[in-house]
Every structure is written in C-alpha cells, then in structure tokens.
Amino acid sequence: MSIKSYAMAIRDAIAEEMRRDEKVFVLGEDVEKQGGIFGCTRDLYLEFGTERVRNTPISEAGIVGASLGAACGGLRPICELMYMDFAFVAMDQLLNQVAKTRYIFGGHAKIPLVIRGQQGIGRGNAATHSQSVETIFMHIPGIKVACPSTPRDAVGLLRTAIRDDNPVMVFEHKALYAQKGEVPDDPEFMIPFGRADVKREGKDVTIIANLLYVGRALEAAEELQKQGIQAEVIDLRTLVPLDKETVLSSVRKTGRLVIVHEAHRTAGWGAEIAALTVEEAFQYLDAPPERLGAKACPLPFNLGLESAATPQVEEIVAAVRRTCYRS
After folding, report:
1. Which residue in 312, 297, 198, 325 sits closest to 260, CA to CA?
2. Residues 191-250: pLDDT tens digits?
3. Are 170 and 148 in contact, with CB atoms under 8 Å apart?
4. 289, 257 in Cβ contact below 8 A?
5. 258 and 140 share a domain?
6. Which of 6, 21, 99, 130 could form a disulfide with 299, with the two C-beta atoms 3.0–4.6 Å apart?
7. In angstroms, what CA-CA distances link 300 with 89, 120, 187, 260?
C-alpha cells in the first residue's frame, strides 16, 4: 500500500495503464506541460511524449469527437474535460454518437473511451464551474458513470474504465483532489463497476451518497451515533451500472432511507434510488425516503451562499432524525 492524494492516485493510474498498453493516450486542454489544472496528468509528457499526451484546442465538442474517432480506430483514449460543466458543449457527440455507436453497429464496434474530469463545490467557482452533473449522464443508455470518493476508488474505478470496451464517464470532485488515502500498489488492482461500498454498517437507517458527500454522510453518522442512532452509509461508486442489491439489502435491514447528493435535488439521482426502493422494497419501509440535494438555483460564487445552497452535515442529521422519529 502507498499513501497518495486523490489527484496523484489518478495520475499514477493513468501512467501505469499507458505503460501497460501503448494504445492508451491522453488528450485535453493543458494536459501536457501544465498537467491539467489539478495536476492529474503532471509530467506524463516527459515519459510518453506529446504524441500520447496531447494538448487540444478549447473545444469540448472537438475533444470528445476526436476521442470517439480514436476509439473507433482501435486506440484507447482518456479524454480530460477541464470542467464537467462543459460536457454540455459536446452534448451531440456524447448523446448521439459516443453513447450509441456500439449499439448502432450491433456490438461490432468497440468504443474504449474514458471521459474524465472534475466538478462540484468547494472553491467558489460560481454557477458555470461548480455544478454536479452526473445525474444527467445516468439518463443516457450506452454510457457508464463512475464517481470515486477516495484515492483507492479513483485508481480502481479508473483502471476498470480504461480497460472497458464501452464509453465511461468518470466524475471526479475538485474538493477531493488533495485528500490522501491508501492505494494498493498492485498494477492490476481494479474495482468492478456496479459494486457499491458499505462504508459503515448500521441497523437504524441507510444513508446513500457519492463523491464529496460520502465523507459528509460519515460525519453525520458519527454525530448520530452520539444520539443513539446507528446509520449505515453506502457509497454507490458507480451510478451506471447501479448496485441495486446492496441498496435494497440495506433498506430491508434498516427500514429507513436518506439519500444525499450535491446534484440538484429535483430529478437528481436520489429520486431514482427512492423510486427503486419504493418499487422493490416498499413493504420494508417504516417511513418515506428522505432526499437531500442542492437547492433549485445556480451555484453561488460566495462560499457562504454556496454552503447555503448545498446540503450540510447538520441537514443530513436532521433528515435522519425526521425519518427515525416520524410519528
């Protein structure tokens, strides 16, 4: 095991995969000498050269389109979008081409394409640079969606994504890049998609979260423990494919469910989890599911207002108390 930051774990995983397979290459804005704005490709060009670590123009549509073409041609591109907010500039490529090409060709065309980048709050990056947009891509058949919350998961999920023959979007979080944790040294370490991680076991309520909010859910669970409530905390890790069984098994045990995410609450992925639970485990529920997410407003620049617009630990605690003490 090694101790690495989330950002360096990503950087090292990319380097290991590039050494393993000469078809793997990186492209995106400022990925070469600058190493990306958070250093996730730092110094890779020194080892692999500028043919395999390629700077691109500021055109997300062009970056994704070129990556799709490379994948169709037998390469394994890792496409970095500086901010996942800008994925919408490439929406035609993502929705109508990346997601559908393998299907249209009856499975004969492999699309080994990874699209990775960061999103989220924590730096006061304001309305167009702080969004959490993973829910939207959960809705598009043909794209897998991964959301690592730890350095270990960042490595294991990214390596799985790179070796997958289908397009994968890997959503990282800007506020996690400096977080450090243990990472296996094994260059074959992978985390299968569709396998959630039970971060903390409990018997009274299930809390489901992803990315930055896994840590906040664990903080809330610590506070709830002082109040005599044992919360089970689940990190989904991938939204597509979704680990239904871990979710349903936990809810059948606890009888109560709280979902918290940074994405906007309205039509967020938490609504899908709540619907799934009501459809397949309704008889086990002792209270309606609770959902927490960002308020229905653009993300503010001011950090105080940013915090007011997104769920805080005390709000998670309050939601759990509501569902546990509902009369």
Report:
1. 312
2. 999 999 999 999 999 999 999 999 999 999 999 999 999 999 999 999 999 999 999 999
3. yes
4. yes
5. no
6. 130
7. 21, 12, 41, 20
Q: Please, what is the average pLDDT of the chain?
A: 97
Phi and psi of 182, rounded to 5°?
Answer: -75, 140
pLDDT score, position 326: 72
- What's the pTM? 0.97
CB 284 within 8 A of CB 252: yes
Sort strands 53-55 and 197-200 into parallel, antiparallel or unpaired: unpaired
DSSP notation for 246-283: HHHHHHHHHS-EEEEEEEESTT-HHHHHHHHHHHHHGG
| Structure token digits, residue 178 | 């400096």
Of 209, 238, 161, give the one whose Cα is nearest residue 311. Answer: 209
Residue type, 225: Q
The catalytic residue positions are 60, 129
Examine the domain organization and report whether 267 and 207 are in the same domain.
yes
CATH code of residue 317: 3.40.50.920
